[in-house]
Amino acid sequence: MTSSSFPINDALDAALARWEQYGRPGTPDTGFVLSRLPGRRTRGIYVAGSEQPIFEPDAHILAMSPAPDGRRIALQLAERADEDGVLAVLDTTSGNLRHYNDIHCRYEPMQWTPDARSLAVVARSPQRLVQVDVVHDEVTVEPVAGDARCRLFSAGIHMLLAESRPASPTRLIRLDNSARLGSFPSITGVFGINDGDVLVYGGNALHVLDAHSGVERWRWMDPAVRLTAVTVTGDTVHASAVRAGASVLLRLAHGTVIDEWPVNSGGSVASITDLGADGGRTYVVIEAPAVPPHVVTVDERTRGGGAATVAGDFETVRHEFAADDGETLTVVVTSPKGLTGPAPTILTCYGGFGVPDLPVFEPTIPAWVESGGRYATAHIRGGGEHGEQWRRAGYGAGKRRGIDDLADAARGLAGADLTNPELLVLAGASHGGTVVASCALDHRGICTGFATTAAPLDLLSLEKHPLGRIWLDEFGDTSSPEGTQELRAISPLHRAKMIDPEHRLPRFLGIVLAEDSRVNPDDSYALASVLREAGAEALVWEAPHAGHGSNHLDSLHSMGSVLLSFAAHTTRRTRSSEGRHA
User: Is 404 helix (H, G, I), strand (E, B) or coil?
Assistant: First the structure.
């Protein structure tokens, strides 16, 4: 099925458009903020604390890095949604934009020298260190390790290079003298701290090192948490983290946690989705399924202020259900207030790469819930909601564990009289799409339909995807007959080929992205073909001008409207309002 023939539910489409009018703000950086303002389709750069525009392009802004003096901003701009950005430098006074079209970037950190006269970035295709003298418009290039993924960080006056290799610790090296400061299981970010020391964070640990010798000043580690963002103000560290499936905010000094605050908004389950510091203040972005994202200072947050009002007559509740091995699974459910009994439900998950799947504001959620449905997110093993042991339990050869967890979450919702299989649609994007497809096909009768977005669905052919080579460890080992057999058993495409057509099959929607540079669409078309041959109703819809990363609002609207319309039709709701086509 093509984009011109997908039936759209007009009522849900209109509700989605209303909820999309909320913006998505960012945190201040050197007096600027990268945000999507209410009603705008694209992100732009604005003066912090106002809506005064500095730069509002039609292109996708992948990243920004203001110079220390605020006179220029380094940008990564992509004309399409394929995440192929190029370096550009914006003069904030004149508005002049200088493109460096041969310097390709994909979310790589960009670092300015303290005098704001030059910046540096590890560019891609090919990988090399690029330094740009913005005063004289001169570019110099230096080689970096060819067998590692390299990223550049800044800590005060020091430029540091992180080298990551498969199955090896990540090395942190000083750029000026090639001295190795240390090796770490992972590096997500690096900051200057204490007037000359270096803070390194990643996974569940913080390390502070002497910038000259690499001697460790202090270390903090908690295997029960997953750090999602860190910022430094003076010698104080603030970190957003996930503990026991919930978002928390930590404040540390000299390696000791001074405060830990659970995150909520107006008493509702909520999450921190961004963290930053500027002008001596620390800012957080807080949101929830029925609470649009809003920026508050840490001072406001810790005093109990800065809470936004729930934007609809909804409630978000954490439920706990037992997995078949006795583990406790958390499912976060947003429902209309006062709703009792089974209701049409969309159940989502992610469950991979140690990424926490937290309750956030996504316009499809209130649009669906205000029409009488429930929207649920399951924390399954393989994700980052419950620490490293949880993550490892659903990794590699343990991938089936996360798939079974999703089935147990669905059974838990039915057992709690929140939904039933005839009213349940599973939905997942990317890795989450792989999980929901395998679950729907392996656990027959668990749902009435399932939808995937940009998902790899043939696990025996991951290498054919543009980024498939880096997923191999996450899904399992194909180097042995046993490993190949385990992958075949959970691969959605291979599960579909083994289906007995005598049994009723769930309805399938595969959403593919026209400008996806990570996952190619072939798996979705192949799965739909196999399911149709087995007698199932299976559709594939291509989202125009959409990619795997940053997307404009109109692309997000099209994808959300198609998903909600599929769920409504599949659960046999409001069919009379269907009739328009996307």
Answer: helix
- Assigned architecture for domain 151-219: Beta Barrel (2.40)
Phi, psi of 318 (to 5 degrees): -90, 125
CA distances from 103 to 62, 99, 124, 335 (A): 14, 9, 7, 47
Alpha carbon separation from 453 to 23, 350, 513, 562 (Å, rounded): 23, 12, 8, 11
Q: Per-residue pLDDT for 310 more than 70?
A: no
Q: Is the peptide bond before 293 cis (omega within 30 degrees of 0)?
A: no
Helix (H, G, I), strand (E, B) or coil at 58: coil
pLDDT at 304: 54
Q: What is the tens place of the pLDDT at every residue in 12-60?
A: 999 999 999 999 999 999 999 999 999 999 999 999 999 999 999 999 9
Specify the CATH class of 26-143 in words.
mainly beta
The one-letter amino acid code at 222 reads: D
Calpha distance 73→92 (Å, rounded) = 7
Mean of all residue pLDDT scores within the chain: 94
Residue 562 and residue 567: Cα distance in Å, rounded? 9
The structure's pTM equals 0.95
Q: Which fold has domain 314-581?
A: Rossmann fold (3.40.50)
One-letter amino acid at 380 equals I
